[in-house]
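Below sits the subject:
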Amino acid sequence: MQQTIDKGYDYIMSYDERWKEESGSIGFRMSNDYLFRALMQRDEKTLRKIVAAFLQVSPDDIEDVTVINPIILGESINDKEMHLDVRVIIDHGRNMNLEMQTVHHAGWAERSLSYACRSFDSLCHGDHYEDAPGIWQIAFCDFTLFEQHRAFVSTYMLLETVGDHHVYTDKFKITNVDMTSISLARDNCPDSDLVDWALLFKAKTWEELKMLAEKDKSLDETISSAWQLSKDREILEQMRRREENER
């Protein structure tokens, strides 16, 4: 029987261990971009943990994290107009875009740059340019963007190209997490938390997810949330439409 979840943006998800009764193929992709969007909107703990992994801080060190472009989950949306990047404001100041990208579309580098530029240009009339909050555009990619420069995590900034590579500004960054290059991540490095997230998004069976859950209680909670969201008939239908679109 399908479980219906309240569509309110402020819905707080509680842990449900019944997901551990599942076995075999998950039946949907954990990297489904609609599911990713739903998790970021519905599960503040997961959103906070992912943001903290990039900032390399404890989730408890983040005072506030809010999705500022929520959609009504489960509603039918014109896929041609739908941009599933999640815009987040952290501690009432810093801006971060989070994206799940499973298909290597032509022009992805330019597309991600466009997302970042639109978010950076957020000043209102009368604001001082030096007060621009900046933007960090982050994408979990299920492909390698630049074959000659493969890395698990790559971060790009504006910098001087001839002399000492001085950074023009630290308020504009683009990061790609290449989920096909997890093996390139070194143990005990700043990217170690991101490795677990990439493994979660790449998982194809419930058994793989159970192994991750045994390793990290916070991942257990995220998997529970994903399972609950997949029990919402309307959300599941949108997830399937997204995968059909990609195929």
Q: What stands out?
A: The two ends are 28 Å apart (CA to CA). The chain has a mean pLDDT of 87.
